[in-house]
Design a protein that fits this description.
Layout lengths: L2 E7 L8 E9 L4 E5 L4 H4 L1 H11 L9 E7 L11 H11 L11 E3 L2 E2 L5 E2 L4 H11 L2 E5 L3 H4 L7 E4 L2 H9 L28 H13 L3 E4 L6 H5 L2 H4 L5 H13 L13 E2 L7 H5 E2 L4 E2 L1 H4 L4 E4 L7 H5 L2 H6 L1 E5 L4 E5 L3 E6 L18 H8 L4 H5 L3 E4 L17 H19 L8 H7 L4 H14 L3 H18 L6 H9 L10
Parallel strand pairs: 3-4, 5-8, 8-9, 10-17, 10-18, 11-14, 14-17
Antiparallel strand pairs: 1-2, 2-4, 6-7, 12-13, 15-16
C-alpha cells in the first residue's frame, strides 16, 4: 500500500482539533514534500523522522517520491507533536507495519534522532478529544501520567519507536496505562490562624459562598495578603470536569500534570506583569494568569500599582469567564472563570488615617492614587472592605473562629442552596435570573433605591450588591432577602464612597 492515513491532534489554545496525516509514496524523482501549513518545527520533522527510522534500523523509503499532507490545510501546525504520526505513516505506506492497525488510533509525540519518544505539550486536551472520538491514544511514556487523568480513554505509551512498531505488528502487546487516581490534598493555611479581623473574615466567607470578587484596602500589616491566601481553602473541591479544565490549561502551559491535582489554583502575579502575562497572548498565544486561575483564585496585591491598561483588560473576562484572542490567522479562546481578590493601600504611603499621623500624602496624591482604578473595574468587584490595624498580642486566645473547616462547611451549604435553586452561583446570575431569584419586598425595594441614590452607585454596582444580599440570605438559610441583608451588602461598597470615586 502506497497511501497511509494516521490521526493526530494539533494544539489550538486549550482545544485539540484533529489533524489527519496522509502519507503517499510514488515513483519518480526521490523527494520528500511536507504540505498543510506547517511551521518551522514541523517542517524540520522530516529530518528527525529520517534519522529516527535509520537509527532504529527501519527502512526509510528514500528512493520514493514522498508526499506528506497535514489536513486540514488551513489549520496552522506547530511543534514536534506530529513526528510520531509522520513516522508511523511512512512505515504503514511502505508496508513495514499493517496500515489497518492505525485506523482506530491517534498519535502524538516528538522523535529523537535515536528513535526515542519525547514528551510534547498539550497532551491533556488531546486525550479528552481522543476519548470523544473513541480512539486509542499512542504517545511517549513521559506523557502517560498526564493523559491518564482523563478517564475512559485507552492509552498506550512507549519509550521508543520500535516498541510501538512491535505493538502494532502484534509481536509485543503494550499494556494500557491505568487511569490516574488522585485525592485532593489540602495544603492551604487555616483561617483560624488569623487573629482578629472578624469583619474581613466574614467578607471572605461571603465572597467564597457566592463566588464574589473582593477588594481589601487598608494600611500595611493588617493581614490582607494573609486573608487572601485562605480563600482557596474555603472553596469546595473541584468536580472532575472542572479539574480536567484546570489541568488542560496547565498542560497547554507546558507544566504537565499538577502535583496537587485536583485542587483549586491560586495565582498571585507581580504588579509589574504585562498584559500578555496577565490576560494571555503573545506571538504564539499562551494562557495568561487569569486563565491559569480558572476555577480558582486570582490575587492581585498592590492593585493600583498594576498598569491601568492591563487592569482594564480584566473587565470583559470578569463578565464572560473567557479570554478571546484574535490574530490574523487564528482566533483563540482561553477559559478564565476566576474569582478575583485584590488588595490595596488607602494612599501612596499606606498610612492614611493612622492614629500616629505618619501619613503625609496630600489630598491630590490620594485622589491620583485611587483614580488609577477605573469606576467600571470597581463596579465589577462585589465586595469592598476597609481593614484597620488591631492591637498586637503575643497571646493566642484559642477563639479565632471560624476555622477553615467550619467556614468551608458554611460555604458548601450556601453553594448547594444556590445550585439547587438556580443552577449557578449568585455571582453568575444574569439580569433575567436576578429578577426571578433576588426579589425583595416593595418597602425594601424603595429603601434600597433611596440608599443607592444616596451612595451614587451605578446600575451594575447595584445589581452586584443585590447578588451579595442573596448570598447573605443563603448563608442564613432564608428564602427571602431581608432589609438586613440589603444593608450589609451596601456596606460592602465602601470604596465607592471614598474621595476620588
Amino acid at each position: 500500500m502506497t497511501l497511509a492515513i494516521v490521526h493526530s491532534r494539533a494544539k489550538l489554545g486549550v482545544q485539540a482539533p484533529t489533524v489527519t496525516v496522509e502519507v503517499h509514496l510514488a515513483n519518480g524523482m526521490p523527494s520528500l514534500t511536507l504540505v498543510g501549513l506547517p511551521e518551522t518545527a514541523v517542517r524540520e520533522s522530516k529530518d528527525r523522522v529520517r534519522s529516527a527510522l535509520q537509527n532504529a534500523r527501519l527502512d526509510f523509503p528514500s528512493l520514493k517520491r514522498i508526499t506528506i499532507n497535514l489536513a486540514p490545510a488551513d489549520l496552522p501546525k506547530e511543534g514536534g507533536r506530529f513526528d510520531l504520526a509522520i513516522a508511523l505513516g511512512l512505515l504503514a505506506a511502505s508496508g513495514q507495519i499493517p496500515p489497518d492497525s492505525l485506523e482506530h488510533c491517534e498519535c502524538l509525540g516528538e522523535l529523537a534522532l535515536s528513535g526515542e519518544l519525547r514528551a510534547v505539550q498539550g497532551v491533556l486536551p488531546a486525550a479528552m478529544a481522543c476519548r470523544e472520538a473513541g480512539r486509542t491514544l499512542l504517545l511517549p511514556r513521559a506523557n502517560a501520567a498526564e493523559a491518564a487523568m482523563v478517564r475512559g480513554v485507552r492509552i498506550v505509551a512507549a519509550d521508543h519507536l520500535l516498541e510501538l512498531c512491535e505493538h502494532l505488528r502484534g509481536e509485543r502487546e503494550l499494556p494500557s496505562v491505568p487511569a490516574h487516581t488522585s485525592v485532593p490534598v489540602s495544603h492551604y493555611s487555616d483561617l483560624g490562624d488569623v487573629q482578629g479581623q472578624a469583619q474581613a473574615k466574614r467578607a471572605l466567607i461571603v465572597a467564597a459562598s457566592g463566588a464574589h470578587n473582593l477588594l481589601l484596602f487598608g494600611p500595611p500589616g493588617t493581614g490582607k495578603t494573609l486573608l487572601a491566601s485562605r480563600l482557596p481553602g474555603l472553596l469546595p473541591p473541584l468536580r472532575e470536569d472542572e479539574a480536567l479544565e484546570v489541568a488542560a490549561v496547565q498542560s497547554v502551559c507546558g507544566r504537565g500534570p499538577m502535583v496537587q491535582w485536583p485542587t483549586r489554583p491560586f495565582r498571585a502575579p507581580h504588579h509589574g506583569a504585562s498584559a500578555a502575562a496577565l490576560v494571555g497572548g503573545g506571538s504564539q498565544p499562551r494562557p495568561g494568569e487569569i486563565s491559569q486561575a480558572h476555577h480558582g483564585v486570582l490575587f492581585l496585591d498592590e492593585l493600583p500599582e498594576f498598569d491601568r491598561k492591563v487592569l482594564e483588560m480584566l473587565r470583559e473576562p470578569m463578565e464572560s469567564g473567557a479570554v478571546h484572542i484574535a490574530r490574523a490567522r487564528e482566533q483563540l479562546t482561553f477559559p478564565a472563570r476566576f474569582q478575583l481578590i485584590a488588595a490595596m493601600n488607602p494612599c501612596p504611603c499606606g498610612y492614611q488615617g493612622d492614629p500616629s499621623g505618619r501619613c503625609r500624602c496630600s489630598a491630590e496624591q490620594v485622589e491620583r492614587y485611587r483614580n488609577k482604578l477605573s469606576g467600571p473595574l470597581l463596579d465589577r468587584i462585589d465586595l469592598h472592605l476597609a481593614m484597620h490595624n488591631e492591637p498586637f498580642s503575643l497571646e493566642h486566645s484559642g477563639n479565632n473562629r471560624p476555622t477553615t473547616a467550619e467556614a468551608a462547611a458554611d460555604v458548601a451549604r450556601a453553594r448547594t442552596i444556590q445550585l439547587q435553586r438556580q443552577g449557578c452561583l449568585n455571582a453568575h446570575l444574569d439580569l433575567a435570573s436576578l429578577r426571578d431569584f433576588c426579589a425583595v419586598s416593595t418597602d425594601d425595594a424603595r429603601w434600597m433605591e433611596k440608599a443607592i441614590e444616596r451612595l451614587g452607585l451605578s446600575r451594575r454596582a447595584s445589581h452586584r450588591a443585590l447578588k451579595v444580599a442573596r448570598t447573605l440570605a443563603d448563608l442564613e438559610g432564608t428564602d427571602a432577602i431581608e432589609r438586613g441583608h440589603l444593608a450589609e451588602a451596601l456596606q460592602y461598597r465602601q470604596l465607592d464612597r471614598q474621595p476620588g470615586h
